[in-house]
Amino acid sequence: MIPPLGEGLSSLHIPYQFESLDHWGEVLDYIKNSEEMNNLIGQKNKFGSLDTGHLMIPLN
Amino acid sequence: MSIISPTFIRPNINNKSSVIELFEEMKQIYHYYDVSSKVVEIIEGKNVGCFGLIRSYTDFSSLASVLPKLRENRRFQELNLKISEKQFGETTTNGQIWLTIFGSRNWKSNPVSMVRQYSVSRNHLPDMLSILSEIQNILDKKRLMFWV
């Protein structure tokens, strides 16, 4: 997502969507151990720098 | 394409439930105007402990049609004033809109979100999207969905 107005107009927000917290853990472990994924993440870092991240859950 | 508009508040001590009630009431008002929204809590990372109300509009036209209605809704304005006056806590995010340029949201089947924020020159957006498309292809088998 990109902001057309407001602050941080050069920022790019990427929301990854998971079925549950367990699913989040499973996917991140997979990414950490996957050579293919780490190569792609390395390429991504050539074009932008990671600033912040957070994890959120729905309340209802 | 969809338009996302978030508000996040870091509740003061003993004001957690007031923030949740505030967001739940605002959610009902958004629902009345056919705007999808959800109340969330940040449990790790930047702004941990904050609560949020995230709205989703189908496009700029629907956002443009709802904004005047919200301005004329007295109860909504009263609730909004509580946010502006920081009645229940510090507002960490408000009044921003984000335009999705890849994928789509799926709050029902995949309600837990990890949001990563990058600094990217607009010139490099096509390169980033190309890589994200490859990542999506790999992670499809892990039932992960994301949107940008």
Quick one: overall form of chain B? globular
Distinct helical segment count of chain A: 2
Q: Would you list the SSEs of chain B in sequence order as H and E?
A: EHEEHHEEEHE
Mean pLDDT of chain A, to the nearest integer, reads 90
Structural class assignment of chain B: alpha+beta
Q: Pair with the most extensive interface?
A: A-B, 48 and 57 residues
Radius of gyration of chain B: 17 Å
Q: What gross morphology of chain A would you assign? A: flat
Task: Report the uncertain regions of chain A.
Answer: none
Low-confidence stretches of chain B: none
Radius of gyration of chain A: 14 Å
Mean pLDDT across all amino acids of chain B: 92
Number of strand segments of chain B: 7
Strand proportion of chain B, as a percent range, falls in 25-35%
Strand content of chain A is 25-35%
- Strands of chain A, count: 2
Major beta-sheet overview of chain A: none
Features:
heterodimer, A: 60 residues, alpha+beta, flat, B: 148 residues, 5-stranded antiparallel beta sheet, 4 helices
Description of the molecule:
The complex is a heterodimer of chains A (60) and B (148). Chain A is an alpha+beta fold and 60 residues long. Helix content of chain A is 43%, strand content 32%. Chain A has helices spanning 21-33, 35-47; strands spanning 11-18, 48-58. Chain A starts with 10 loop residues before the first strand and ends with a strand. Chain B is α+β, with helices and mostly antiparallel strands. The longest helix of chain B is centred in the first third of the chain and has 17 residues, at 16-32. The radius of gyration of chain B is 17 Å and the shape is globular. At the A-B interface, β1, α1, α2 and β2 of A face β2, β5, β6, α4 and β7 of B. β2 (48-58) of chain A pairs antiparallel with β6 of chain B.
